[in-house]
Amino acid sequence: MRILSGIQPSGNLHLGNYFAMIKRMIDYQEKSDLFCFIANYHALTSVSDPNLLRQKTLDAAIDFLSLGLDPNKSHFWVQSDLSEVHELSWLLSNVTSVGLLERSHAYKDKTAKGIVASHGLFAYPVLMAADILIFGSNKVPVGKDQKQHVEIARDIAMRFNHTFGETFVIPDADIEADIATIPGIDGQKMSKSYGNAIEIFTDEKTLRQRVMSIKTDSTPVDEPKPIQDNPLFEIYSLFLDEKGKQELKERFETPGLRYGDVKKELFSVIWEYFAPYREKRAQYVQNKADVIDILKIGADKTRVVAQEYLTKARNNIGLNYANY
Ligand code: TRP
């Protein structure tokens, strides 16, 4: 089973990124054939500062490695080190209707917000389809917001196979219903753009402040506390197994619980959970040349797979004119 996902280098990671995406990906490396990359070509649709792009790309790689991604157990690379995806992207463009791309929610939302529609933004799903199809990926773990993009990739793959013969594996989106939405400190979906995120590599003082400002209701201390739509309960649960969750539920349902005490406890849980990753991260930050080596080796290893599918597509489409 080949699992693939990309993540845009978007800056400081928060609990939502970690539990909805990164942790799931890293867990896959133990039981599947994991392909994981930093989507810096896609980032060009929103970043136009070269220094910032360089910095965010390397930071994202450091974050993944620190959080346990093992380049020996997976394929891990930076998207722009494999320009093969652009060639495939062009081949796919010719079986992609404009109508299909016009129906993309992400594109419609962005243009509705007044963002000028560049060709890059419009063609974003085609490049994403190339990312997925060029490795014969079976499963694509993504958040709900990317589900439609994976469906577009499926459509494109089917259309290509139908036109030029069996070439690509038809991929499936993998969305874990349970953890699809992780609340931020205000109870809305955790998102950098809502300003409600809890960052995982922030300093101790900031982390404490963020946790202490998780929104709670005004249930009196001597009454049972709700667990539904209670961001404190939901965020704490991310760190617990089934038994732990059950215990936490019982504590919430028992009168006398003080939200302030639970928040202090949750702060310590988060701080301890990320302690080993923080240490690893500090080491990588000191040794960026090692990180760059890891990425180059990762790209070389991954290119072999990309070339296999690209060659098949080129031949099936008729670019191999010497074989006329
Ligand atoms: N569009 C994805 C996001 O913004 C990133 C991405 C690029 C991706 N290519 C991909 C995800 C291929 C999965 C598969 O999150």
What's the short version?
The chain is mainly alpha-helical and 324 residues long. It is 55% helix and 7% strand. Strands 1-2-3 form a three-stranded parallel sheet. It has a two-stranded parallel ribbon with strand order 4-5.
Mean pLDDT: 95
Shape: elongated
Low-confidence runs: none
Percentage of β-strand residues = 5-15%
The tally of domains stands at: 2
Number of strands: 5
Order of helices and strands: EHEHHEHHHHEHEHHHHHH
- Structural class by secondary-structure content: mainly alpha
End-to-end Cα distance, whole Å, is 35 Å
Instruction: Report Rg.
Output: 22 Å
CATH class descriptor name of the largest domain: Alpha Beta
Strand order of the largest sheet: 1-2-3
Q: Helicity range of the residues?
A: 55-70%
List its traits.
324 residues; mainly alpha; Rossmann fold; Tyrosyl-Transfer RNA Synthetase; 2 domains; three-stranded parallel sheet; two-stranded parallel ribbon; 14 helices; 5 strands; 7% strand; elongated; binds tryptophan
Model description:
The chain has 324 residues and is mainly alpha-helical. The protein folds into two domains: 2-181 and 287-323, Rossmann fold, CATH 3.40.50.620; 204-273, Orthogonal Bundle (Tyrosyl-Transfer RNA Synthetase). It has 14 helices and five strands. The chain has helices spanning 15-31, 40-43, 50-66, 84-93, 98-102, 105-112, 119-133, 147-164, 204-212, 231-237, 242-253, 259-273, 275-286, 288-317, and strands spanning 2-7, 33-38, 74-78, 139-141, 172-174. A three-stranded parallel β-sheet has the order 1-2-3. Helix 3 packs across helix 13, helix 4 packs parallel to helix 14 (288-317) and helix 9 (204-212) runs antiparallel to helix 12 (259-273). The longest helix has 30 residues, at 288-317. The protein binds tryptophan.
